[in-house]
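In response to reviewer comment 3 from the previous cycle, which asked for concrete evidence that the modeling workflow produces usable outputs, we include below a single protein chain processed end to end. The sequence was submitted unchanged, and the resulting structure tokens are shown without manual editing.
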Amino acid sequence: MVQFNFFFLLLFSYTFIFFFRFSQFHEFLIPSPQTKPGNLGVLDM
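The workflow returned the following structure tokens.
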């Protein structure tokens, strides 16, 4: 069950990052018009 919990936590993390990127709060943190979904190296870690 340890591996299952780790997989669920990892999936939840990517889901949270996905919604966080395309939310208005993300646009508020990074108000750059040149910001692309692949340039967020900090959130990817």
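The mean pLDDT is 67. We consider this sufficient to address the reviewer's concern, and the full set will be provided in the supplementary archive.
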